[in-house]
Amino acid sequence: MASASTATFSFELYPPRSEAAEASLFASLEHLAAAGPEFISVTYGANGSSREHSLAVLRHLMNSTSVHPMAHLTCVGSSYEEASRLIREFLDAGITSFLALRGDPPKGVEEGENFLGDIGSAGELVQLIHRVQAERVPFTFGEVPGFPGAKRLRSGEKVTIAVAAFPNGHPRSRSVDQDIDTLLAKEAAGANLAISQLFFRADDYLGFVERARAAGLGMRILPGIMPVPSPRRLDRILELSGEADPTELRARLESVASPEEQARIGVEHASELASDLLAGGADGIHLYTFNQHEAVLDVLGNVGLLDTRQKETA
Ligand code: FAD
Hints:
Blueprint: E1 8-13, H1 19-34, E2 40-42, H2 51-64, E3 69-74, H3 80-92, E4 97-101, H4 122-136, E5 139-143, E6 151-155, E7 160-165, H5 176-188, E8 193-198, H6 202-214, E9 220-225, H7 231-241, H8 247-254, H9 259-279, E10 284-288, H10 294-302, H11 308-313
Parallel strand pairs: 1-2, 1-10, 2-3, 3-4, 4-7, 7-8, 8-9, 9-10
Antiparallel strand pairs: 5-6
Helix pairs in contact: 3-4, 4-5, 6-9, 8-9, 9-10
Flavin-adenine dinucleotide binds at residues 43-46, 72, 74, 99, 101-104, 111, 121-122, 164, 170, 172-173, 178-179, 182, 186, 195, 197, 224.
């Protein structure tokens, strides 16, 4: 079991859609970066974000902070050639961590329609990222310890390729077994980290991890947690994720009227969830930030993942 002091934490952001939103995100980023996350991931395609907007945030992370950036990539609408070019562009920008996703249908397109292009699943995208990376840097020269000036041939730089996991099942999958099989296939394709869809009960995640391990999955599965600040935001999250309505959280949020009180309840719920997950064996947590720092840093403070100095700068 991971103790709070050894557990990692990471954040997810989305590219801002206006100059004012960008200024506000960059201000929040200073606080998020100062907390010392394992990485910060930036969504792609979600909420209408595009390649340029995602790359701009990733570049800002690399140039203005010491945080390791992770780029989300999707399969939506790309030929092999376009997808390979895009991956090369991200690698050239210095990105070595990716979250490979199938992606959701663009607005107005139904699930059944063909919206993907040449790459049909996240697993195929994982393979393509590895292939592009291997072709780009087939080998490097490394130092030989104890022999100054000597060089040794090493195989290419390793990339981190994360994939999505669904503790309560992807809305389109027929059973949890199908989700575990998909995750195993993504690991076999070369994925080395999983990040979960959000969920509201610790047992949803802990039971899923147990079944995935029993099926032979080796990679880490980081639980995705979101402090939900209002009933309205909860509706939107459920619409996007397809998760079942967490009636107990909804009742707590609806039991108070002021936005501040509701936000406090969202943080309280996320902190209880994170604490149960860490106690149950999770070795890290991944926080969905909604591009704001206060709530997620409060959660980390509540579960003992921020040291005193960080609490002061937060
Ligand atoms: P896959 O691994 O290819 O499939 C996942 C599961 O869905 C499998 O169980 C598979 O069998 C099942 N499945 C998929 N399609 C069908 C189908 N048609 N019929 C039956 N079963 C099906 N989306 C974005 O556009 N941009 C982002 O930046 C983004 N970030 C995300 C971050 C996280 C942590 C998560 C959990 C999701 C994110 N998504 C994002 C959403 C994601 O693209 C969708 O959930 C998508 O529907 C599935 O992607 P996947 O990579 O899991 O797909």
